[in-house]
Amino acid sequence: MKDLARLPSLNGLRAFEVAARHLNFRLAAEELGVTQGAVAQQVRNLEAQLGLQLFHRQSRSLFLTEAGRGYVTNIRKAFDLIAEATRVLRPEPAHLTISVAPTFAAKWLIPRLPDFTDAHPDIDLRIVASDRISNFQTDAVDLAVRLGRPPFGPGLVAEHLFDQVVIAVASPAALQRLGPASAPCDLLGLALLHDAHDLWPQALDLIFPDGAPAPAKNIRFNQTSLAIEAAMAGQGIALTPQFYVSQDLAAGKLVACFDLELRTGADFYVVAPRKVRNVPHVTAVRDWLRVQARRI
């Protein structure tokens, strides 16, 4: 333990390693979050402790001396040993990436994340919100939740999560502003809020089999979540999978309209490669999704 007293400053060693990597005190200072002068001073102090010159300093360049080249190789090995010892002592959470549609993330997954974090503190869940179909290899995605019909592709396993039952919703304030509605056509006094799925033509055919009257107005969004937010703001009637708004309906923020239940034949599935990385954690997330889906 007496040798510990002879060790140079760890701050000086760190400044030396970073400066040796960049061969530039300014870039080293940016990486370390200190001033250029501080890095230069730490390196000078280290050289004074060692009694050796580690760098050749020229007006616009920096070069390692022969002693510096040999020293930095061993210093890096020492830092790697410290990092590995720390990793073993305090392992990082497992990283698992799940790809979901933006509305699924906003309206269903994110409100339930505290439950997931409490149940699985060892899993660092990374959420990629995109309507684009993920490539499990090139995008480093472990799981995906997608709306569609299986099969989703070769080498993929799909597990049913939700039926898609589409309903029409509006805010109580919008319905009150409209006044008493004695027939479904009266509700068309409100704007129809469309999203990228464009299900209103199918919905209107179901509600008005003999032909639908023209709505007062159409407003279009590229995400279902935006149409839902517009409906809650009293701007019209939105179509949405029922499970997206179950809590809003229970809280009285939205009201179901038209007595509509539209089924398109496409449902929500958890999709994963047949051969997954990190099987225990993928299984844990898939099981958690299944349990949460049953609670709706």
What does this structure look like?
This protein has 296 residues and is of the alpha/beta class. The protein has three domains: 2-89, Winged helix-like DNA-binding domain superfamily/Winged helix DNA-binding domain (Arc Repressor Mutant, subunit A); 94-164 and 267-294, Periplasmic binding protein-like II (D-Maltodextrin-Binding Protein, domain 2); 166-262, D-Maltodextrin-Binding Protein, domain 2 (3-Layer(aba) Sandwich). The chain has ten helices and twelve strands. It has a five-stranded mixed β-sheet with strand order 4-3-5-12-6. Strand 3, helix 5 (102-119) and strand 4 (123-129) form a beta-alpha-beta unit. Helix 1 packs across helix 2, helix 1 (10-22) packs across helix 4 and helix 2 packs across helix 3. The radius of gyration is 30 Å and the shape is elongated. The chain starts with 9 loop residues before the first helix and ends with a helix. The mean pLDDT is 90. Residues 8-65 form the HTH lysR-type domain. One of its GO terms (molecular function) is DNA-binding transcription factor activity. It comes from Tabrizicola oligotrophica. Keywords: DNA-binding, Transcription, Transcription regulation. Pfam families: HTH_1, LysR_substrate.
Give the key terms.
elongated; D-Maltodextrin-Binding Protein, domain 2; Arc Repressor Mutant, subunit A; 12 strands; 296 residues; DNA-binding
Could you state the order of secondary-structure elements as H and E? HHHEEHEHEEEEHEHEHEHEEH
Most strands sheet: 5 strands, mixed
Count of extended strands: 12
Number of helices: 10
Q: Looking at CATH, which topology of the largest domain would you report? A: D-Maltodextrin-Binding Protein, domain 2
How does CATH name the architecture of the largest domain? 3-Layer(aba) Sandwich
Question: Main sheet: which strands, in order across?
Answer: 4-3-5-12-6
When the domains are counted, the total is 3
Low-confidence stretches: none
CATH superfamily of the largest domain: Periplasmic binding protein-like II
Q: Helical content, roughly?
A: 40-55%
Structural class of the secondary structure composition? Answer: alpha/beta
Shape: elongated
CATH class of the largest domain: Alpha Beta
Question: Percent of residues in beta strands?
Answer: 15-25%
- In whole angstroms, the N-to-C terminal distance is 61 Å
Cα Rg? 30 Å
What's the mean pLDDT score?
Answer: 90
Keywords: DNA-binding, Transcription, Transcription regulation
Protein name: Transcriptional regulator GcvA
GO molecular function, one term: sequence-specific DNA binding
Pfam family, one: HTH_1
